[in-house]
Amino acid sequence: RVRLNEAGKGESGFKLSVNDFVVKAAALALMRVPEVNASWTDNAILRHKHADIGVAVALDFGLITPIVLHAEEKGLAAISGEVKTLAERARAKKLKPAEFEGGTFAISNLGMFGIESFTAVINPPHAGILAVGAGEKRAVVSGDKIEIATVMSVTMSCDHRVIDGATGARFLDSFKRFVEEPAAMLL
Fold it and tell me: Which residues contact 179 (CB under 8 A, 6 or more apart)?
């Protein structure tokens, strides 16, 4: 992220956040584990073709989740710009209903507030939501050594009518692989 942001200082003018990587990684994980990219209805479970990711934005009166449509098809800079624009428009109360209703999955990131981990509540029609905590330096075991690494805690809430524990675990494994090796998001 630091290297990309250094490169983006020039004519492109983008600044990527950790959340931009989280949105992209979640979108690609939804494509790898399509059972999670689904919604419950009274008549059927709907499987979605695209990863339309709702990103929680705090407002004075509560939360709203503007949606990054087709996030799996967008690059990090495009996701970054779109999330920033949607958040600004949400705070100004200028979002159209189509920009915050629906979606296929959601992300709530409280890392910027220093929250290590939390449990997020699912926003129907989504069947799942990721709760993203702060990246913190922690002691980790690597082989036979203890090293310092930046570690981010992520929890997932699932509607078990759609996503069972094993399916949720496969999604989290895929998400983790993309976050730990961001270059894999280019493949």
Answer: 21, 22, 25, 152
- Catalytic-role residue among 50, 70, 126, 160: 160
Mean pLDDT, residues 166-174 taken together: 97
| Distance of alpha carbon 164 from alpha carbon 33, whole angstroms | 12
User: Which residue from 108, 121, 104 is spatially nearest to 34, judged by alpha carbons?
Assistant: 104
Active site residue 160: yes
Q: How far apart are CA 99 and CA 150, in angstroms?
A: 34
Q: Which residue spans within 116-173 are E strands per DSSP?
A: 128-142, 145-158
Total-model pTM: 0.90
